[in-house]
């Protein structure tokens, strides 16, 4: 049997979660542009982050913080209810648990703030996101038909999902 030498083992990447600040705005706007048909501008992110009710997290590769975030999530907490405003993980870093870690950071924050529930809206054709939310315990509580414009100028429905925090 062939032995695997230690130096041949692929290097395990470590990531850590940090609180999102206004200085992250250009980097997260760039990540957002990768995936959304109507990307938000730097100014829109800056305006959201200046609101007291809005908070978020980035995920950074350990030792490579200067490379910018590998993903981020933006959320709002108002009147005891949380809402995911947006979440994105860079394509090169998908399916490594980073989306999960970002959502977990939001859930922890909302627990510590004694929020009752977390809501979000997601394009029903967005398989990765819908799977992620279902695995995190979100349940469908509504549907808005033809809510999103798709890249091919079509329309697709939005699912409204809720996760109980009590
Ligand atoms: C949705 C998104 C944030 C998920 O990020 P991610 O870091 O790749 O997700 P994770 O690695 O944490 O995956 C956690 C779970 O989500 C589900 N999931 C993630 N990607 C999936 C895919 N392509 N297909 C099916 N299920 C998927 C799986 O259940 C996965 O667990 P598993 O890998 O143990 O099976 C990412 O795909 C993304 O940035 N998409 C573009 C932006 C977007 O659509 N945002 C959501 C808008 S509401």
Describe this structure in words.
With 166 residues, the chain is α+β, with helices and mostly antiparallel strands. It has helices spanning 25-33, 42-49, 98-112, 127-135; strands at 15-19, 54-61, 71-78, 81-89, 117-123, 139-149, 155-164. A hairpin with a 5-residue loop joins strand 6 (139-149) and strand 7 (155-164). The termini are far apart. Bound molecules: coenzyme A (COA). The site of coenzyme A has 19 residues, from strand 4, helix 3 and helix 4.
Side by side, the strands of the main sheet go 1-2-3-4-5-7-6
Shape: globular
Bound small molecules, by name, code or SMILES, are: coenzyme A
Counting DSSP E segments of at least 2 residues, the number of strands comes to 7
Q: What's the tally of helices?
A: 4
CATH architectural name: 3-Layer(aba) Sandwich
* Cα end-to-end separation: 53 Å
Report low-confidence residues grouped into runs of 5 or more. Answer: none
Structural class: alpha+beta
As a percent range, the share of strand residues is 25-35%
SSE arrangement, N to C: EHHEEEHEHEE
Produce a short descriptive summary.
With 166 residues, the protein is α+β, with helices and mostly antiparallel strands.
Set down the secondary structure blueprint.
Layout: E1 15-19, H1 25-33, H2 42-49, E2 54-61, E3 71-78, E4 81-89, H3 98-112, E5 117-123, H4 127-135, E6 139-149, E7 155-164
Parallel strand pairs: 4-5
Antiparallel strand pairs: 1-2, 2-3, 3-4, 5-7, 6-7
Helix pairs in contact: 1-2
Bound molecules: coenzyme A (COA).
């Amino acid at each position: 049997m062939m032995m695997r030498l230690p130096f041949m083992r692929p290097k395990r990447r470590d990531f850590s979660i940090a609180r999102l600040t206004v200085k992250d705005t250009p980097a997260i706007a760039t990540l957002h542009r990768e995936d959304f048909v109507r990307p938000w501008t730097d100014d829109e992110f800056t305006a959201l982050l200046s609101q007291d009710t809005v908070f978020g997290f980035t995920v950074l590769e350990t030792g490579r913080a200067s490379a910018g975030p590998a993903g981020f999530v933006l959320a709002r907490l108002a009147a005891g209810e949380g809402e995911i405003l947006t979440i994105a993980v860079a394509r090169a870093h998908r399916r490594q648990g980073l989306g999960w870690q970002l959502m977990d950071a939001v859930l922890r924050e909302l627990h510590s703030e004694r929020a009752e529930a977390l809501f979000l809206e997601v394009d029903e054709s967005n398989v990765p996101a819908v799977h992620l939310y279902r695995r995190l315990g979100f349940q469908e509580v509504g549907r808005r038909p033809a809510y999103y414009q798709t890249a091919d100028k079509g329309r697709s429905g939005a699912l409204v999902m809720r996760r109980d925090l009590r």
